[in-house]
Design brief:
Length: 219
Amino acid sequence: MRSASSDRHARARIRDSALELFGARGIAATSIRSIAEHAGVSAALVIHHFGSKDGLQRACDDYVLGELMGRNAEALDDADLSGTIQRWIADLDSFRPAFDYLARMITEGTAEGLALWDGLVDRTEAMISTAVKAGVMRDSSDPRMRAIVIAAYGLVPLLLERHIGRALGESGLTADAVRRMTLPTLELYTHGLYTDDSTLAAARSALDAPATPDKDPAP
């Protein structure tokens, strides 16, 4: 008889194998049997824990979103923020399957990928809302749009990994590349880009102005 502990370990091992294979091959090209072989379990045990490949994929989504957003929430709550950032960089390789899975799901354009993107935006918006209430982040004129921008920006290094790595003389999103990316990204989030608000004021004025109807050309 299996113990609860062994069941939990088997479930996690199956999920981790699915993350790796889904990220490398895509969902359609990955079978339950191949996941079971990779995890060292039977296909029946995969079905026992997740019900179907769709159920396994949803478990992967929940894990990826929970880990990524959980890491962001940890930064907001952790008094030793420097230590938290150091742990992120040190753990980069352990998160590689989750990163690959997220990038593939988003770019494949499937219904599952769209749902994963929606979940990423929803959780980003909720995290920022919590940070605003805590006084850690500033409020926005459009919280939903800001969450979309932040979520999209967070995906860019995953989607353009090869190009970013090549521009930095790295093989991809290596630990050194992430270290180099960290300060400029946080500088941008913390201090902004412009030295004053003239561009923001000009854009607000243009967007607030009433639309000018098109005029018929003179005869």
